[in-house]
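TL;DR need structure tokens for one chain.
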Amino acid sequence: MSSAQATKNCITLKGSAQIIVDYLKYGIHSILFQRGIYPAETFDSTQQYGLTILMSNDPKITTFLQNVLSQTEEWLSKNMINKISMVITNAHSKEVLECWDFKMQAENGDNQAADPSQRTSSKDQTHIQKEIREVMRQISATVSYLPLLDCICTFDVMIHTLDNTELPAKWDETGAIVIQNAQAVQLRSVSTGLHKVETVVNYKMST
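>> reply
TL;DR here they are.
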């Protein structure tokens, strides 16, 4: 028996939620940079997934995302989320110009336990990282076909939960996001074996 024998990989629901939230964090920061929502000098480069990713160093943005994503992780570990939406709007007219949807789907894992909290996945972490890397590359490539955002823009992140989810204090319910003359592009999916994320960018076609 080889002493270098690999130990079986085991991802729990909580571990899966952490992997997905990490992807959301780096993905949202990358979109903010790629779409020019904030000045390039307010971003620092970091290495993740074998890529150089630019992260905002603005304390307001990092605190906001930290709060949203920590709540996302808690709900995702209980399979209470349908979708996360990053919405980019014209700061003056409030018109929605782009909406990046991260659609969440619960997967059964390996043991398909009746209690979802007991499910685990043995999917190789390097394979998951490869899937995330491919989507991150696609996010960077979207600047080649998405319309130029030539106005001052702002962004928000919305968590679409199951109907019976109790909202934290200071959180509000929100209505549907509508983009006039919308087009959609589906990017690659990411799967941990317990959560699957489909990333779609919806954008307003230039007239």
